[in-house]
Design goal:
The protein is mainly alpha-helical and 94 residues long. The chain has one domain. It contains four helices and no strands. α1 runs parallel beside α3. The longest helix is centred in the middle third of the chain and has 14 residues.
Length: 94
C-alpha cells in the first residue's frame, strides 16, 4: 500500500508541514521574510506549520515578534527559555 497523501512531520498530526524545499510563491516569500527578520537560516517547525496559509503565517510571525520576542516585563531570553521548557514538558517537537 503506497502513501500518496500529503507529507506530515510526525505521526498522528493533521497539519501539513511545508518544508523549505517544497515552499513556493507566498510561502517561500514568508519563509524568506522570517529568515531576514530573525537572522536564522533554518525555519523552525512551528513556523512551517503555518506554511499552507502564508497570509496567516505572516500574522503569526508579526504577533510573535511583538508579544513574545520583544523586551517587556521579562527579557526575551527568559521568555524563550520558558517557551522551550514548556515545549519540552509537552513533548512538542518544535
Amino acid at each position: 500500500m503506497s502513501d500518496e497523501g500529503p507529507k506530515y512531520e510526525a505521526p498522528g498530526t493533521k497539519i501539513r508541514i511545508i518544508e523549505d524545499a517544497e515552499a513556493a510563491g507566498e510561502t517561500a516569500a514568508a519563509y524568506d521574510a522570517w529568515r531576514a527578520s530573525s537572522g536564522r537560516q533554518q525555519v523552525p517547525g512551528i513556523i512551517k506549520c503555518f506554511g499552507s496559509r502564508p497570509d496567516f503565517l505572516k500574522q503569526v510571525v508579526e504577533f510573535s515578534n511583538t508579544i513574545h520576542f520583544s523586551e517587556g516585563h521579562l527579557p526575551r531570553r527568559l521568555k524563550e527559555m520558558i517557551a522551550s521548557y514548556v515545549s519540552y514538558l509537552n513533548r512538542c517537537p518544535y
